[in-house]
Specification:
The structure is a single chain. With 91 residues, the chain is an alpha+beta fold. It has a domain at 3-48: YefM-like domain (YefM-like fold, 3-Layer(aba) Sandwich), CATH 3.40.1620. Helix content is 45%, strand content 16%. It has helices at residues 7-12, 14-24, 42-49, 55-65, 73-77; strands spanning 3-6, 27-31, 34-39. Strand 2 (27-31) and strand 3 (34-39) form a beta hairpin.
Length: 91
């Protein structure tokens, strides 16, 4: 279960709060019972701040790592696609 401390409790026992964040995970700080901040270990903070690939980079990496011919996409969409030529539009 996540630890919760009021800001007053955290002020009085900061080392306890930091130790809990390091050993047990994120610690929520509250003001009047409402969450206002979270204390996390340095390692977790660095992981959260790490650069993540953008959408296109992620798509490109996926395309490099997966042979899309193995996905049977045409078979999956066979009954979904409307293959009719469409309506006639007067010129």
């Amino acid at each position: 279960m996540a630890r919760r401390y009021s800001i007053a409790e955290a002020r009085d026992s900061l080392s306890k709060v930091v130790h809990a964040a390091e050993s047990e995970g994120p610690v929520t700080l509250t003001r009047r019972g409402r969450p206002v901040a979270v204390v996390v270990a340095e390692e977790e903070y660095q992981r959260l701040r790490a650069a993540r690939p953008g959408f296109w980079d992620a798509v490109s990496a996926f395309r490099r790592s997966v042979d899309v011919s193995d996905l049977y996409v045409e078979e999956a969409y066979r009954d979904v696609r409307d293959r009719s030529p469409g309506r006639s539009i007067p010129a």
